[in-house]
Amino acid sequence: MLPHTIGEIDPPQRLLMGPGPVNAHPRVLRAMAADLLGQFDPEMTSYMNEVMALYRPVFGTGNRWTFLVDGTARAGIEASLVSMVAPGDRVLVLNFGRFGLLLTEILARIGAVVETVDAPWGEVVPMDAVAAAIERFQPKVVATVHGDTSTTMAQPLDGLGDLCRAAGALSYVDATATIGGMEIAADRWGVDVVTGGLQKCLGGPSGSSPITISDRAADAIFARRHVEEGIRRDDITDGTGIRIGSNYFDLAMIMDYWSEKRLNHHTEATTMLYGARECARVALGEGLAPRYARHGAASQAMMAGIRAMGLTVFGDERYKMTNVTGIYIPDGVDGEAVRRRMREDFEIEIGSAFGPLQGKIWRIGAMGYNAMKHKILITLGALESVLRAEGYACPPGAAVDAALAAWNKASIT
Amino acid sequence: MLPHTIGEIDPPQRLLMGPGPVNAHPRVLRAMAADLLGQFDPEMTSYMNEVMALYRPVFGTGNRWTFLVDGTARAGIEASLVSMVAPGDRVLVLNFGRFGLLLTEILARIGAVVETVDAPWGEVVPMDAVAAAIERFQPKVVATVHGDTSTTMAQPLDGLGDLCRAAGALSYVDATATIGGMEIAADRWGVDVVTGGLQKCLGGPSGSSPITISDRAADAIFARRHVEEGIRRDDITDGTGIRIGSNYFDLAMIMDYWSEKRLNHHTEATTMLYGARECARVALGEGLAPRYARHGAASQAMMAGIRAMGLTVFGDERYKMTNVTGIYIPDGVDGEAVRRRMREDFEIEIGSAFGPLQGKIWRIGAMGYNAMKHKILITLGALESVLRAEGYACPPGAAVDAALAAWNKASIT
């Protein structure tokens, strides 16, 4: 490929109804077109403070330490774990899908002693099993995913904080796939660190990870503070704990950067910050309760449409994430051929699956800017047509009608 | 601060003439307003391949492995070091400023055995001192910064690769502050891994780190490959080397993501990728040689203007980076008051300094979209006015005239 032949960016107008990323809200992209500021410019630091204020309600918290990690959602996960966990620390992971496995993977690299409390893909971990595991294993940290898109399950988290605090453990929640679409209640759950991403229910691009940290967890992290040489200052003293294994993900230095200390750590990803700020403004402008209800209506509509086609929804419906739906691929249908026709004929993306579910289910998302009635109806109509073309007979028009009725019912109640 | 009172993004139109970030090229911001794509969408993977092709000439390399790390420039540095260096490995760092210290800091957290070969701030490390240190220390990896904005010095790198390869060492270069403004010659230097950032001479926002990796270094990194559970595949086998200490920065998995294997690692930061792609298109469209000459003319103009005001340029001019100029703060002048007036009266940002240079020099940048004749003239005219207001007398109009003459002379030759 010759560089001079590479033209202007001009992506197709694709409707992204997979498990994320999804289409960004136009207001978010417009906000990201604003010109840059120096990282210690008073206007820039004001924007940083505004981001902190905007994300507190999004996380359901009053935590002072609520800010952004510069990287994708996975960067927020790793920053949390490497800052909370030292080599040799015991960590209990609630494991009910691919992203539970990711937590164990990151922790293994940190050198943690990891134990999991497992549920089969498509179920969640009962809280009494968590309690028993905490009692048995005596972890220093308990880590879990909130909604795991690989299985479409959302782990109930009420009560988790009490269990952890009673055992003297810190707690971590990866809310990448639910933040902005399902309620995040960091304070009510009583959990210590929660992270997210923009590219799912917040309707922004991947590349910035909102995070919130309780004072208790912040104290533990600051005890490991080690300011890098070259930017040492008299007003910032190192802690006595084990140094955090990463510089980029050292949340102690990043908190010092976001505090009035304004320690010079990395150069803030300004454009991503503008985007994250607008994501939260859009969400709070709509109102969090109506926004969660909209995702709930989307889930009801999607399930009704899928079932009207004679298809089966995957997993335990009581714990299903509202923003993504797993659908068994019917016998005799080529799942990848369906996805290809959806993309090529309708410019709609739906998702495949991972691990034990690969080739068994599709995952259709309706999140953020795409958790809208018309986008669900269009997707179901297209899927019906594609399934027919691939040899699967379903009652014509039934899916769209059922989905519309379910949406309307869910929106009234 | 009440979230609902936080309004639309509307930064002041500030001219960023510090050591970076600088104003983004408008084409880059426009490219970033394009809507998103799924990460394995054929159009998206085409864009990824185009980014690889576009950054090869920018790095002066034919390396297959040329792509982006999702995070700020510092993320690219840490990804390189954690993937190249295992605990206990011996690493030699060329240390001539704050960012040399940053390399030692990251390496210490990795558990490397670090030795430095030092130069005072304002000078560079002589290549014979590097050769002697390699001979003495027998490092596995040699790491250096190319241009260190903290001192405005650019380390000459011709010959470094030969020294390293003769000693069986891999080499790493942090080119964050020079890429797109001064020549990066990865292949001619013979170095193995080079990383950059967008927010300086490439005229984009912070948040994406271009990287290039030689086949030799890629082999060493793939030998440490360990694909995470949940996404294991029969066609990707783990290596036998020590597992890389970070999941997010595991360049083996990231290369598998950017290769035709398309391993599902993080969700690519699509909007930042659009921006990085456009940064390279702008640079190659101008032509790299004319672009480097433009930065050279900017340096000549800035130095001529500074000297016409009776001020003194910091550091060894033979090795001065073209895109940033250190200026001694004259006796009796309050450096911070000058910066404040520059910002408040003229909406121009100039930089302060770190460590031993704090309070001693200003740093004025002219990079990327801001390495332009008129922006240098405006900055110098403003500085003259501000210095006069702060009690420093300088010949009226001399700086601008001298800078214009120097620019014109440098642009002709």
Describe what this molecule looks like in 3D:
The structure is a homodimer. With about 425 residues, chain A is α/β, with parallel strands linked by helices. Chain A folds into two domains: about 25-285, Type I PLP-dependent aspartate aminotransferase-like (Major domain) (Aspartate Aminotransferase, domain 2, 3-Layer(aba) Sandwich); about 285-410, Aspartate Aminotransferase, domain 1, CATH 3.90.1150.10. Chain A is built from 14 helices and 13 strands. Chain A has helices spanning about 25-30, 40-60, 75-85, 100-110, 125-135, 160-165, 185-190, 215-220, 250-260, 270-285, 290-310, 335-345, 375-390, 400-410; strands at about 15, 65-70, 90-95, 115-120, 140-145, 145-150, 155, 170-175, 195, 210-215, 325-330, 350, 360-365. In chain A, strand 3, helix 4 (about 100-110) and strand 4 form a beta-alpha-beta unit. The longest helix of chain A is centred in the C-terminal third of the chain and has 21 residues, at about 290-310. The radius of gyration of chain A is 22 Å and the shape is globular. Chain A starts with 14 loop residues before the first strand and ends with a helix. The interface between A and B is large, with 97 and 97 residues. Chains A, B: InterPro entries: Aminotrans_V_dom (IPR000192), PyrdxlP-dep_Trfase (IPR015424), PyrdxlP-dep_Trfase_major (IPR015421), PyrdxlP-dep_Trfase_small (IPR015422), SP_NH2Trfase/AEP_transaminase (IPR024169).
